[in-house]
């Protein structure tokens, strides 16, 4: 694979190539895939096209000869989710860089480039989003081999997908002349913003235009040089944020103040559209940004009537539709070209050709301050997860699942008391100065203000029902005294 490519443009010693480093950007909320994808648990963490998540699929594409362990750039709220999902697919030694605030793709890639360049400035970054789908991975790797050669020669390389339809949801690349020094790679004539329907149809008819995949292949030193050239303020802020970063367990936290000063700008605007070293590798390996429900329908396996169905679904006289449910039965009768998606707390019904507009609904939910806009009833924590079951005046009921060997923080509440009923496993409960084993079908009461902690000392998950009562039941009514996950929020 990439380790066998020529070393054109590399400053590495003869016979020794610098490695290729997968850099995975895990940001954004994927609002067009609401109600499944939300800020608290966005689309890259869901298994939307198989048994593994989009993040896991992305990481595993980089587990080939000549590549290092990945660098993942994400926000701090998702750090434990990412670490767990990497462990689940046996990916080790990944570097997880935490952004204190979202600043778009250019600062994120710059942070990864600075971190990688500390060890090897000639290392080639393979930058990709965590939430894209690829149908033909061998073809992707063949295109990557070409891109790596061009990157080692000093180019900023992207992948251009051969368009199959007049897509208005993607940006385009106008393919330029073939590069004589790197066969199979072309100069970029220009980048084009997402077009309207008429323009997209013209591009398709004219030829020579490619979908912009958003993947980049570039030497760490080259990217930093171009950032310094075109966005010197961004360069300075991110360099300082990396220099002042702190280690937090297995994570690397960028400095808050420095990174917050970095301009909010995409890599396209910061570098790709301005550099005179932009190159493109054309490809047709079934790439999709999985940006909407109609895109998922297009990618997924369909029945004889053209339907995609996931979960507890009953269809009668339905065609060309996407129907998904996380639990409750969804029955559809006599409809066509619909998207129907049901979660535990929300249902989406849309014409399939309006799927790109779901984000407008999400914005209305945000404007109305509806929690369903960004939060799931199922909330993930480093020790497991909890699910809100029901709530009313002065009470709330949750299901809590704690993984083997994990523990909640030592904490207390000023406004609520709690009653825990264990329904599976055995819990070790700290209450004040005492510790008690609470087994299946047993319970324990935690008075308001009592210092307490829940641990799972066993080999199977502990599942319990928590009944909260009090005048205020918000998650911010937690005072932590000790936490093995170093959380302060």
Automatic annotation (TrEMBL):
Residue ranges occupied by any Mannose-6-phosphate isomerase type II C-terminal domain in the UniProt entry: 370-483
Pfam families for the chain: ManC_GMP_beta-helix, MannoseP_isomer, NTP_transferase
Example of a GO biological process term: GDP-mannose biosynthetic process
Regions that span the bilayer: none
Superkingdom: Bacteria
Family: Belongs to the mannose-6-phosphate isomerase type 2 family.
Annotated protein name in UniProt: mannose-1-phosphate guanylyltransferase
Organism: Acetobacter okinawensis
Lineage of the organism: Bacteria, Pseudomonadati, Pseudomonadota, Alphaproteobacteria, Acetobacterales
